[in-house]
Amino acid sequence: MGQMATAQHLPGFRSRQICFVTETYPPEINGVALTLARLIGGLTARGHTISLVRPYQRGADVSRVDRNVTLVRGLPLPGYPGLQFGLPAGGLLRRLWSRNRPDAVYVATEGPLGWSAVRTARKLGIAAVSGFHTNYDSYSHYYRLGCLRSMAVRYLRSLHNQTGTTLVPGLDMQRKLQGLGFRNVSLLGRGVDSDQFGPHHRCEELRLSWGVGRHGCAVLYVGRIAPEKNLSLALDAFRAMRRLDDSCRFILVGDGPMRASLQRSHPDLIFCGMKTGRELSRHFASADLFLFPSKTETFGNVTLEAMASGLGVIAYDYAAARMHITDSVTGVLVPYGDADAFLAAAGHLADDRTLIRKLGMRAREYALSVSWSRVLDSFVAHLESVRPQTAESGMAASAAPVADDYQEVVESAIERHVPSFESAPEPGV
């Protein structure tokens, strides 16, 4: 409450009404959902009025949903059990935003729901900002859908270019999207909560349960256990370390389609499943070294969380690692895609436990300076800088009516046959 009062009494402060549109949100566990929760929590604490449009989450009690949340129908997202992608909801959004017009709309995901939101905001003259949180076109390689990559890029470019600006977390992604023809790509960094993630959560009892004594080495991976995370390299790196130091143990926190097969083929690894809150903090802080071999990140929040937890980190030189790690000072950076260099770095640290501790201490010191406060300042500034897009400004004028007419037909058909939750009697819909 104190943070809200301070914000409201700052010179020039103006409370804004911001509507977030997303396919994923807590209690779902992924980087997009957690980032959005952090943004929404911070903006609310500062005195802004936030509303949320998202798909219904299976098993959720609709009657307990907050009044500022509007639920839409969704369908299961292939390969991501428990997640839904939202169906088009143009009619619902037009009614919702006509009754309670937001100052700005933030479209966080690019599914049919996101497309409806962008199109509806343009028609109503509402400023819209989009976020590029997930590297979908890169995922196509790992799921043998390379033939669809160019189609995915065209779709994403069309959607994002209809918003006032597209927010990305790092320079790598900004340059990549600009090279693909995305316009008005802006930076919105990430922060880390150094109270939630920190060495003070270290638990010797947990380490003993892993078979790691006071002087052993706990090697950690946190994230989705899936093909796009390049986990085979992490396993090879761990094996290289284990040959030099048999006290090493590899702990994997997370879940995904590869977990069952990895558990069968690597019975010596420790699979902890999904962890959140204090348990996640304990698992981070109780390790020594963090391996992050992924090549498909838009950012990689876990990099900052590992640094804040006081771990040595080995990661490819891009995304969050490039932005926040100084090589051989606050972590180890490896040339992007150089698997041999990644293995060599792991072997070097296995043979130098003192260096791991030094890297972790310096990483923690650095992470203390990376707060969410500046991220929130930047987010609001981006929203205030954009102007509503029109058909002519968002896309080619000749193509806009065709796209709009087609989208309207599709949305109307879906909404007739798959009604939303808007008419539910309980608050929150």
List its traits:
single chain; 429 residues; alpha/beta; Rossmann fold; 2 domains; seven-stranded parallel sheet; six-stranded parallel sheet; 15 strands; 15% strand; elongated
Word description of this protein:
The structure is a single chain. This protein has 2 domains: 2-191 and 374-417, 3-Layer(aba) Sandwich (Rossmann fold); 199-367, Glycogen Phosphorylase B (Rossmann fold, 3-Layer(aba) Sandwich), CATH 3.40.50.2000. Mean pLDDT is 86; it is low at 1-6, 394-403 and 422-429. It has helices at 2-8, 31-45, 90-99, 112-124, 136-142, 149-160, 171-179, 204-209, 231-244, 259-265, 277-285, 301-308, 319-324, 339-350, 353-367, 373-385, 391-394, 400-417; strands spanning 17-21, 49-55, 69-72, 74-76, 84-86, 104-107, 127-131, 165-168, 185-187, 217-222, 248-253, 270-273, 289-292, 312-316, 332-334. It has 429 residues and is α/β, with parallel strands linked by helices. The protein has a 7-stranded parallel β-sheet with strand order 3-2-1-6-7-8-9, with helices on both faces. Helix 5 runs antiparallel to helix 6 (149-160) and helix 12 (301-308) crosses helix 15. The protein is built from 18 helices and 15 strands. Helix 7 links the parallel strand 8 (165-168) and strand 9.
